Amino acid sequence: MDGTITYNQRKVEKGVARVLCAVNIPSAFPEDVRETFARYENRNRKSQDVSFQLSINPDPSRPEERLSDQEARELASALMKGLGYGSQPYVVYEHRDIDRVHYHVVSIRTNWEGRKINDYREKYRCRQLLKQYAQRFHYKVGGEDGTKKEAVKVRSVRFDPKAGDICNQYLSLFREAVDYRFCTLPQLKAVCASKGLIMDTRDTPVGPDIVLQGADASGKPVARMISGKEMKENLYGLYESRAYVNKRLAPVSRSERSSLARQVSYALTHSRSEESFLSMLSRRGIHASVFRSREGNIYGATFVDDRSKAVFKGSELPGITTAAYREADIRWNAAALREEAASMAPSVPEMSPSVAAQSLDEREEPETVVEEREVDAVDTALSVASSLLGHTGDFGSASRDDSKVFKKRKQKVTKRKS
Question: pLDDT tens, 277-301?
Fold first, then answer.
């Protein structure tokens, strides 16, 4: 219970939340709230996850759904009694940390005797209670007007270096990332990366601090680094409190995980490369990070789903195994090799079979041509002697006078016709 209370109490201290009421607790002071829940928690012997949270979210686009403080207390009381928590200690917090007012009701799942409150079909019973009190508290239950419900469009917000006000962008995007369901620091890093933030941690004299930096679509830094200390925000404390709460939440339903697994499986089967695989998922609001070994083999992946606001390891999705990644990787490599071979092949004009046969018939053996020309034998002898002596001297001139003694002869020269 301490993590759940700390999360809400920090909101109160920052001025973005307030306590509407504390029921079955001596007072709304934080010390009394913690002490009361601690006494109940110490009596528990079996249950590990005892924190209970109920979120009430009026539609901001419908002014008639706005609740006064009294109406919010009465609605929370009606829902808690209907779910079996009427005699349990609980606190109602009003939150204004996002663009709509909503309420958190915090209680504990074990009674004073240490026995667990019956939670059989809890979500179904809660929906029935919402229908029962809809007219009294003038709100509308979604999907009850008989019309076809439109598909929810996922709004993906990323860091924009051209928008300016980098510090506020960092803070706003980090708060959105913290609202996702994660349990570890690497999972939060994956959420931040999907929003264009590079997140890192560093040690300081007062404890760990988180450092943020803007990135482009390829993940390269495009803005300066700013730490939580510079922004005067305890970002690491926000991470710790949220992770503590998430670890105690019920796991994501199998239907949601199966829906995500089908989309991942389709992308693995129909993608031609790792880039196309990531792009196909991104268009569906799913941001994937693929992990490879030193040898380059895929051994896992992490998926950030904007629709369910949750982070999943590949092993948490039914039917998605390491073998599926490796099969896709083999196909990606084969496609890359085919494209590389196609780009390196020379472009040869195509010929019809008749033209090709004709070109083969026209090929003939090279023709030998005999050409006759007169060669002076004396000139040949003088050139050899000059090369040996290094100069012509008197020998050359005397010899040329006797050139008439030698007869001219014919020399055969063989040439090849190309």
Answer: 988 998 888 998 888 888 888 888 8
